[in-house]
């Protein structure tokens, strides 16, 4: 994990974004970034002294770009811009999202294409390193002209206005938090208000964070699917490499290999492998798990490629080019991000749907091959996991609604100047809900499959699936009379989120 990140014009790594957003890694501008920032600012200062109109320097914004601003009002223009654009509403978004967007805005500044002054860049660096998180509201971005309201809330905090959470998480006026941290509020100069807000940083930050979570969740999905196959007396034969090679999708091969090795040396699987077994082929939710999980993996790989291109980008409008020209452009449009954010939500909904189907199968006496109804201790008196499945099914259905794409929507704004928008921020927000939802869906399958494996005694699960079950048993007891289930779901979620379940299985998975 990175303890300190040196920012410059070079592309950012996804792990670096996660380290700053979640891990609290500190940030510094490298020497090249400082040089480029200073050189670009000289171009802006020269333009600010001229009479010819330059968007963001000597004109209004959006549909007001036709309004010429006199030289003595151009600094006030920037502060007014930030105040008016910090117009979000709703609950504050998560601190990790705000930290990610702060880092990504600072990275664009470090490329030397924005015209922000060196002292403003240093102030944003100090804000990040002090652990001060501006209050950014849920609603306010259309994903075009950048994440305007979310980034304006950060810029407003830099000027000592608005509200923030300090390093202890206490919500307070920005002026007080900056004073406590020894950070001088910024008096914005020409173009700076626009440069601090005109980027896709919020949606990109959420994509990068989601990709880290999704990679871990898909590994867990392979594990819980393997546990369910084992618990349902399924076979591992469809996961063989030669069968998977007939359809050469890389994600599918990865998931199939993982499931095969997770089930290796399983006494339960071996117990019904003989020619007298009447189970000819398993249900799709078991047999086709690598195809679905693998398609989700390939979707994530495509999204990661988009994220990496964005992490090499400098998003601003207008932008200062290396030869000193300042040009308007459309690079702030969030379509590339919006599409993959929506695509990932679709993939996660389908993984959750398949997971729910396996869980339901374990609870149904007609399809579970000898397990008690709902895995209850005394069916009728006890309900077992009946309602845990309801919770899982409800979330799986919610994820299908969340999978409805935001990026196909557009709503004209700014007096039709901004007549097509990406809705990428909305796509990112619902993807975060999908990640949380899939975590809970997997937690319920984990609980159910582990309980079913217990009920297969005296047969034992394989080394890898058994290790996962044993770790779960440190937090959740085995089968018995009904008890309060909600805390058990929470415990399983925690073991998934912190990587404990995955690590336990990996240590015993056959290479």
CATH architecture group name of the largest domain: Up-down Bundle
CATH topology of the largest domain: Fumarase C, Chain A, domain 2
Number of domains: 2
Write down the Rg: 26 Å
Annotation, overall tally of beta strands: 9
List the helices and strands in order. EHEHHEHHEEHEEHHHHHHHHEEHHHHHH
N-to-C span: 26 Å
Helical percent range?
40-55%
CATH class of the largest domain: Mainly Alpha
Q: Please summarize the sheet with the most strands.
A: 3 strands, antiparallel
Strands of the widest sheet, in order across it, are 4-6-7
Provide the residue-averaged pLDDT: 93
Number of helices: 20
Given helix and strand content, the structural type is: mainly alpha
Shape descriptor reads elongated
Q: Which stretches are poorly predicted, pLDDT < 50 over at least 5 residues?
A: none
Write up what this structure looks like.
Pathway: Amino-acid degradation; L-histidine degradation into L-glutamate; N-formimidoyl-L-glutamate from L-histidine: step 1/3. It is found in: Cytoplasm. Keywords: Histidine metabolism, Lyase. Its main location: cytoplasm. This is Histidine ammonia-lyase. The chain is mostly helical and 511 residues long. The chain has two domains: 4-199, Orthogonal Bundle (Fumarase C, Chain B, domain 1), CATH 1.10.275.10; 206-508, Fumarase/aspartase (Central domain) (Fumarase C, Chain A, domain 2, Up-down Bundle), CATH 1.20.200. The chain is 54% helix and 5% strand. The protein contains 20 helices and nine strands. The strands form four sheets. A three-stranded antiparallel beta sheet has the order 4-6-7. Strand 6 and strand 7 form a beta hairpin. The protein is elongated. The two termini are 26 Å apart. The relative contact order is 0.11. The mean pLDDT is 93.
């Amino acid at each position: 994990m990175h303890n300190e990140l040196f920012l410059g014009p070079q592309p950012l790594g996804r792990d670096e974004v996660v380290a700053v957003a979640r891990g609290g890694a500190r940030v510094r501008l490298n020497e090249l970034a400082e040089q480029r920032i200073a050189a670009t600012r000289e171009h802006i200062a020269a333009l600010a002294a001229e009479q010819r109109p330059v968007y963001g320097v000597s004109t209004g914004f959006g549909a007001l770009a036709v309004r010429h601003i006199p030289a003595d009002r151009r600094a006030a223009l920037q502060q007014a811009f930030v105040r008016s654009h910090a117009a979000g509403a709703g609950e504050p978004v998560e601190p990790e999202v705000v930290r990610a967007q702060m880092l990504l805005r600072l990275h664009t500044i470090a490329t030397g294409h924005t015209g922000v002054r060196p002292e403003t860049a240093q102030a944003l660096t100090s804000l990040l390193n002090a652990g001060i998180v501006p209050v950014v509201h849920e609603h306010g971005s259309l994903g075009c002209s950048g994440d305007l309201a979310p980034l304006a809330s950060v810029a407003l905090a830099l000027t000592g206005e608005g509200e923030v959470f300090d390093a202890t998480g206490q919500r307070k006026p920005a002026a007080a938090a900056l004073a406590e941290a020894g950070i001088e509020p910024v008096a914005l100069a020409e173009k700076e208000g626009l440069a601090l807000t005109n980027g896709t940083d919020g949606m990109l930050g959420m994509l990068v964070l989601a990709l880290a979570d999704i990679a871990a969740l898909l590994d867990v999905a392979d594990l819980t699917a393997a546990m369910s196959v084992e618990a349902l007396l399924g076979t591992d034969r469809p996961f063989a490499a030669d069968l998977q090679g007939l359809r050469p999708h890389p994600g599918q091969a990865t998931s199939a290999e993982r499931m095969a090795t997770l089930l290796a040396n399983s006494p339960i699987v071996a117990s019904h492998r003989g020619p007298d077994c009447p189970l000819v082929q398993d249900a799709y939710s078991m047999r086709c798990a690598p195809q679905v999980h693998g398609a989700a993996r390939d979707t994530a790989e495509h999204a990661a490629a988009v994220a990496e291109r964005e992490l090499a980008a400098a998003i601003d409008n207008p932008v200062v080019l290396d030869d000193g020209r300042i040009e308007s452009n459309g690079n702030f449009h969030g379509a590339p991000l919006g599409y993959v954010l929506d695509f990932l939500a679709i993939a996660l909904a389908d993984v959750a749907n398949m997971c729910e189907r396996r869980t339901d199968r374990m609870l149904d006496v007609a399809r579970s091959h000898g397990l008690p109804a709902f895995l209850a201790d005394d069916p009728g008196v006890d309900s077992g996991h009946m309602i845990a499945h309801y919770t899982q099914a409800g979330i799986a259905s919610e994820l299908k609604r969340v999978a409805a794409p935001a990026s196909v929507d557009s709503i004209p704004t700014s007096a039709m100047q901004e007549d097509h928008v990406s809705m990428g921020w909305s796509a990112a927000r619902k993807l975060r809900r999908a990640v949380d939802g899939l975590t809970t869906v997997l937690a319920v399958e984990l609980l159910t499959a582990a309980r079913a494996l217990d009920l297969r005694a005296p047969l034992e699960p394989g080394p890898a699936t058994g290790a996962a079950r044993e770790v779960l048993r440190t937090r959740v007891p085995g089968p018995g009379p009904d008890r309060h289930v909600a805390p058990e779901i929470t415990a399983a979620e925690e073991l998934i989120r912190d990587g404990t379940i995955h690590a336990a299985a990996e240590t015993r998975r056959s290479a």
